[in-house]
Design a protein that fits this description.
- The chain is mainly α and about 80 residues long.
- It is about 90% helix and about 0% strand.
- It has three helices and no strands.
- The chain is flat, with a radius of gyration of 20 Å.
């Protein structure tokens, strides 16, 4: 009984942490969001709102996130097709 009283708050904190991580990953690796940010970045650069160096740095970061997101999407797709078999 005491074990449950002590472990319940810890388990709740762990579950909250996992949910936060899941939501952060969703935001960070959401393909449509990344695509939209790339478009906005390109527009800002073309309008002269940001220098080329800042543009290149941010574009590189977004492209890395895009690659990771695409890889995750492919892994999920493969996992779903394996379950159907």
């Amino acid at each position: 009984m005491i074990h449950k009283l002590v472990s319940a708050p810890i388990n709740m904190v762990i579950k909250i942490g996992e949910k936060i991580q899941e939501e952060a990953d969703k935001e960070l690796y959401d393909l449509p969001t990344i695509q939209q940010k790339l478009i906005q970045l390109q527009m800002m650069y073309e309008l002269g709102e940001i220098p080329e160096e800042a543009f290149q740095e941010k574009e590189d970061e977004l492209l890395v996130r895009y690659e990771i997101a695409k890889k995750r999407e492919m892994e999920q797709w493969e996992e779903m097709t394996k379950k159907k078999e």
